[in-house]
Design a protein that fits this description.
Helices cover about 65% and strands about 0% of the residues. The longest helix is centred in the last third of the chain and has 25 residues.
């Protein structure tokens, strides 16, 4: 049984609003703003949908970006979506604003989050340099020189050049990207020019040991070891070639390797 105390409402709180009434109120606000562009209506809509924007921003939390920055980006996306929203299309505002907010967050990570860790001070200087370039390009109607950028920001030319070099840390290069061509028509991807471990080198010592100790092995053991370590065949493939079962091949390999191991230990004991 519900107590009278739980049914009483504090006189300083507004009466509860039914869900249908709240939706109708939001729809009225959105239509009013779309018609009048009233600043008060915009602020009220942003206030109501800010928790929604924050929830989308929190999907990207936990990384190097401060949560406050992510919420700010999501809030800007919310305002941008509100500017383009048309209530006559019959789409709920949250469904319309969600992709815009997420797009702003992804763009933020693409433009601002660094692939390699760069000191915070250098990150800020790079952003200052980018802002200066945009400003000077507009004023001069050409690309500014390093000296002009340095003068505007009151930093050295070396600081500007360091910012240019550090900017490459924002991006990693795809290994599928064509490498700089050394000859005409040579547009192979970068991945093909990167060295990899050659498994054959791991077998060199094994082969030398087998050859040096071949006298202590019988013909079958030598052949199976050759197929395993020179031809690099699996035990199943060896079994097919020599006509033994895979289990028998495994036993011969163990026996032969045991002989080689014992032969390598004996000289050490004699020494």
């Amino acid at each position: 049984m519900t107590s009278d105390r739980s049914q009483r409402r504090r006189p300083d709180l507004p009466p509860p609003v039914a869900p249908d009434e709240a939706l109708a109120d939001e729809d009225a606000l959105l239509r009013d703003y779309a018609r009048t562009r009233d600043e008060g209506a915009r602020e009220e809509i942003v206030r109501r949908f800010l928790p929604f924007a924050r929830s989308l921003a929190m999907r990207y939390s936990g990384g190097v970006e401060p949560t406050e920055d992510l919420v700010q980006v999501a809030s800007l996306g919310l305002v941008a979506a509100l500017q383009r929203f048309d209530p006559d299309r019959g789409v709920p505002f949250a469904a319309f604003a969600g992709p815009t907010i997420l797009g702003e967050l992804r763009r933020h990570f693409r433009d601002r989050v660094w692939t390699l860790r760069v000191p915070r001070g250098l990150q800020e200087r790079i952003r200052d340099v980018e802002t200066a370039i945009a400003k000077l390009s507009h004023e001069l109607e050409r690309s500014p020189t390093v000296a002009e950028i340095a003068h505007l920001l009151d930093i050295t030319e070396a600081d500007v050049l360091e910012s240019f070099e550090a900017t490459v840390a924002r991006r990693t290069v795809s290994l599928d990207q064509p490498a700089p061509a050394t000859e005409a028509g040579d547009e192979s991807p970068m991945a093909e020019r990167i060295g990899t471990n050659d498994p054959g080198y791991e077998l060199v010592e094994d082969r030398e040991a087998i050859e040096a100790s071949a006298g202590i092995l019988d013909d079958t053991e030598r052949e199976i070891l050759r197929l395993r370590f020179e031809e690099d065949l699996t035990q199943s493939k060896i079994a097919e070639q020599v006509g033994y079962s895979q289990m028998h091949v495994s036993r011969i390999l163990r026996r032969a390797l045991g002989k080689l191991r014992d032969a390598s230990v004996e000289p050490e004991l004699e020494a």
